[in-house]
C-alpha cells in the first residue's frame, strides 16, 4: 500500500497539500510582517502523532465498551539546535477526564497504541526518544 499526496505552492511561504481522504491542509511558516495562514510542517508532525494514537485509543476503548470519557492529547517536540533541526525527544501526554474512569482499560488501550498499532509512533521512534504519560482527571 502507498499514499500519494500533491502539494502546491500558493505564493509567499504558503503551501496547500491534499490527502488521500480528499481533504486539504495549508502549511506555512513565520515570516515577519505576514499573518500565518497554515500550520507549521514540523508541528503538523506532532499533530499526526496525536491523531494516529488517538484514533487507536478511541477505537480500542470502543471495543472494550468504554465510551464515557473526554480525551485531550498534548504533544511537545524538542528540536535539535543544529540544522537540519528535527525532534530528538517527543513527549505525548494523554489526558482522560470523566466519572469513574476505568484506568486499567484506558492504560491498556494506550499501551496497545504505543507499542503495537500506531505507525506514526513507530516512525517517530526511528529518530526521536518518545515518552508517553497518561493522566486521569476524575470529575
UniProtKB/TrEMBL annotation:
Matches recorded under InterPro entries: KH_dom-like_a/b, OsmC/Ohr_fam, OsmC/Ohrsf
Pfam families: OsmC
Organism: Olleya namhaensis
The name this protein goes by in its record: Putative redox protein
Domain of life: Bacteria
Gene3D superfamilies associated with the record: 3.30.300.20
Amino acid at each position: 500500500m502507498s499514499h500519494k499526496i500533491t502539494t502546491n505552492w500558493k505564493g509567499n511561504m504558503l503551501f496547500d497539500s491534499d490527502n488521500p481522504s480528499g481533504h486539504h491542509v495549508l502549511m506555512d511558516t513565520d515570516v515577519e510582517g505576514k499573518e500565518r495562514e497554515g500550520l507549521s510542517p514540523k508541528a503538523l508532525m506532532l499533530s499526526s502523532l496525536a491523531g494516529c494514537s488517538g484514533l487507536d485509543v478511541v477505537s480500542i476503548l470502543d471495543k472494550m465498551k468504554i465510551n464515557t470519557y473526554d480525551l485531550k492529547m498534548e504533544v511537545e517536540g524538542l528540536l535539535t539546535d543544529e540544522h537540519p533541526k528535527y525532534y530528538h525527544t517527543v513527549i505525548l501526554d494523554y489526558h482522560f477526564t470523566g466519572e469513574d474512569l476505568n484506568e486499567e482499560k484506558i492504560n491498556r488501550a494506550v499501551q496497545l497504541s504505543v507499542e503495537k498499532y500506531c505507525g506514526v509512533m513507530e516512525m517517530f521512534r526511528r529518530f526521536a526518544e518518545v515518552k508517553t504519560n497518561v493522566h486521569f482527571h476524575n470529575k
